[in-house]
Amino acid sequence: MTKPFSPTELVLRVQAVLHRTGGAEPAGPVSFGGRLRIDQARHEAALDARLLELTPTEWGLLATLASMPGRVYSRYELVNRVRGYDFAGYERSIDSHVKNLRRKLDDHDGIIVQTVLGVGYKLGLDRDR
Questions:
Q1: Comparing C-alpha atoms, which of 66, 61, 82 is closest to residue 32?
Q2: Is 53 inside a domain boundary?
Q3: Which of 33, 47, 74, 78 is the most interior residue, by most CB within 10 Å?
Q4: What 3-state class would DSSP assign to 36?
């Protein structure tokens, strides 16, 4: 990074590098709410035992939200984690990807991917124990 830089950008870049190293990813499939299963190693997601056909951006959104269920991610964080720091688009473009992900999850009521007004999005399902 070149100076001057934002401390927020530094933190997000460090988080992205840690995320890419794979140290925080679960070893096997993880279930959420008894309905959603995510397998990071196989790059698969299934809802009610039906495999989902997700775009790379939708997969990145779901994987990011599922990495810490209940944690609210801002649009800025999601764009940086899913599309990268060099993404030149508008951060509100993530809303379209969330809409498409909800459609594929049959989440018309926003129960799985929840909107936190004025902040961003979170995964509304808890991890199964």
A1: 66
A2: yes
A3: 78
A4: strand
User: Could you tell me the CATH number of the domain that includes residue 104?
Assistant: 1.10.10.10
CA-based max dimension of the chain? 49
- Mean pLDDT of successive 10-residue stretches along the chain, which has 129 residues: 79 75 63 88 90 92 90 88 67 84 88 91 85
By residue count, the chain amounts to 129
DSSP string computed for 44-58 = EEEETTEE----HHH
Total domains, the chain: 1
Residue type at 44 in one-letter notation: E
pTM of the model: 0.73
Q: Where are the alpha helices (DSSP H) in the chain?
A: 7-21, 56-67, 75-82, 94-104
Residue 48 falls inside a structural domain: yes
DSSP reduced 3-state for 98: helix
